[in-house]
Amino acid sequence: MAHLEPQALAQYIDHTLLAPDASREQIATLCREATEHGFYSVCVNSGQVPHAAQCLAGQPVKVCAVVGFPLGAGLSDTKAFEAERAIAAGAGEVDMVLNIGWLKDGLYDQVRDDIAQVLQACGKVPLKVILENCLLSDAEKVKACEICRELKVAFVKTSTGFSRSGATVEDVALMRRTVGPDIGVKASGGVRDYPTALAMIEAGATRLGTSSGIAIISGAPAAGAGY
Fold first, then answer.
1. Domains of the chain, start order
2. Whole-angstrom Cα distance, residue 26 to residue 137?
């Protein structure tokens, strides 16, 4: 693929703040940064959606809400309700965590139904499905991607950023091969600098979830750890 300059990566980035202790002031700062730098969205917990939507009123930056986050182990109708209410509050995208235990138990019909309920609640709002790859075998990653491909979700996503590890180039490439060209792949967790971001895109990622977006588009290394 053609070389992308750091600034060209801005529209790949969901500028992310999912810490449980995130303050309203921090969310407002996140929104200002996303507007200033031209990021695609801000990604926040569903309870922060109303405030983020207010901060971004009149701006092109979307609000992305996480649902069933970070474990994915809640009731399916609860996830669907959370998605519905987040959209009503201003979310323009939804990132849900699939039921990891069900997937590992081979309960594929239940996994499919869990995603389908949230997908139905989303209507025309794009749904990304978080696989939490660090907890899955390659065969389980492939099966999850096949289910998502059958349901025609908008994206599959590597990680919550809250488990053992985040995105890898190998996982992004595997997900891209499995879902094909028509579904997005979001790399999240540990994408903290420009070289890593570029490697993820070259492997097939079409979106990046990161709290280090400013460092990425400046070409500078990110300081410390983070989402």
1. 10-218 (3.20.20.70)
2. 36
